[in-house]
Amino acid sequence: MSSKAIILVGGGTRGTRFRPLSLDIPKVLFPVAGRPIISHALSALTTVPSIKEVLLIGFYDDSVFKDFLAEASREFPQFSIKYLREYRALGTAGGLYHFRDAILKGHPYRLFVIHADVCSSFPLAEMLSMFEEKEAKAVILGTRVEPQFASNFGCIVMDSATKKVIHYVEKPESHISNLINGGVYLFDRSIFDVIAAARNARAEQARDDPSEDEDAQEVLRLEQDILVRLAQADGFYVYETRGFWRQIKTAGSAVPANALYLQKLFQTDIDAPHLARASATIVPPVYIDPTASVDPTAKLGPNVSVGPRARVGAGARVKEAILLEDTEVKHDACVLYSILARGVKVGAWARVEGSHITPADHSTVIFKNGVRVQSVSILAQDVVVGDEVRIQNCVVLPHKEIKSDVENEVIM
Ligand code: GTP
């Protein structure tokens, strides 16, 4: 029986917390562990042989995905991959409903729906087994977070014996559970009946409230409008993963996502292409694009990705960082817990630094001397850092030249 997958990719007006990195590249195409964020989800989908078609649904211009679709079709020949564009942001369920004919074409029996901004071990085969075993209508991926972070997410209350979802609240005001929505779902076709019912309820409400904008009625969110309904009916289960999981919301969260995907690659395929071998100067996992040049005396890792044509000079130190294409880290410079966007140049003996964070933190904000700052330093496209300059916990907007030390600032 055939299945389909839908990846919700959003659009230019969403994912604003990913700025300034999303100013020149859509968040979902940003490379972590050497590959666009959505490629990791596509790789995971290859573990489900019944999936033949993957639909990316979003509201970016069609041109945004043109090159990616050509590359992805070569990398994943088992899938037909298409981009379907919403005429405006229709919400995570509104887009599904709008494209229901395209989604249901070929009569798929099951539909995987994945939020593109999730970094996960994607236990899709396990979700599928649960779906079949329980004869479910819907299975949601659940993951546990520290209780203090739970209210930033959709929270799930389940019956621990049956794994049935009995209650779902998006970003609750008080603590109800630390089992949260992992942004991956498996539905059967009846999901469209549930969305249709939510739409009708919305239309009814609008009849009573003429101030409601007619266009807004089209906007439906899986989390608020659909999952709450599913939890009130039978057949909705949660698969609780013990694998890694992290959301990619802020630009800084690309650093822990990069670390998680590199570690996964290192653990599952130590000889994977472009993973650098451990040595006195390489602390794995480190990914180096074949067109990059790294001086043998530079020390890299752990959790470093070096992009195409990047250059790392003698005696440099790079750790927990992403260096995108055409970046340069000159000799004896140090880049820690940071992201260098395309074309960034870091001078000799300079230091670009963030603060230590762990993936379990689920936040890229820290407090230093009582001030809220970004834990990761982010230098946007073509920023130039002078020799011997120190940048600490800063976000620097594109094309700036930094000539003196800066700390805990957003430099515009
Ligand atoms: P918050 O987490 O509430 O700040 O919102 P968000 O837009 O950053 O994320 P949300 O959890 O709402 O979205 C989950 C995924 O769905 C992300 O990958 C978004 O890019 C995507 N998404 C959000 N809104 C839409 C939409 O209107 N249409 C489509 N196709 N995708 C969307």
From TrEMBL:
Pathway, per record: Nucleotide-sugar biosynthesis; GDP-alpha-D-mannose biosynthesis; GDP-alpha-D-mannose from alpha-D-mannose 1-phosphate (GTP route): step 1/1
Documented EC number(s): 2.7.7.13
Keywords from the UniProt entry: Transferase
Coiled coil regions, renumbered to chain: none
Database matches in Pfam families: GMPPB_C, NTP_transferase
Reaction it catalyzes: alpha-D-mannose 1-phosphate + GTP + H(+) = GDP-alpha-D-mannose + diphosphate
SUPFAM superfamilies: Nucleotide-diphospho-sugar transferases, Trimeric LpxA-like enzymes
EC category: transferase
All copies of domain Nucleotidyl transferase, residue ranges: 4-200
Source organism superkingdom: Eukaryota
InterPro entries assigned: GMPPB_C, Hexapep_transf_CS, Mannose-1P_guanyltransferase, NTP_transferase_dom, Nucleotide-diphossugar_trans, Trimer_LpxA-like_sf
Family: Belongs to the transferase hexapeptide repeat family.
PANTHER family reported for this sequence: SUGAR-1-PHOSPHATE GUANYL TRANSFERASE
Name of this chain's protein: mannose-1-phosphate guanylyltransferase
Organism expressing this protein natively: Lipomyces starkeyi NRRL Y-11557
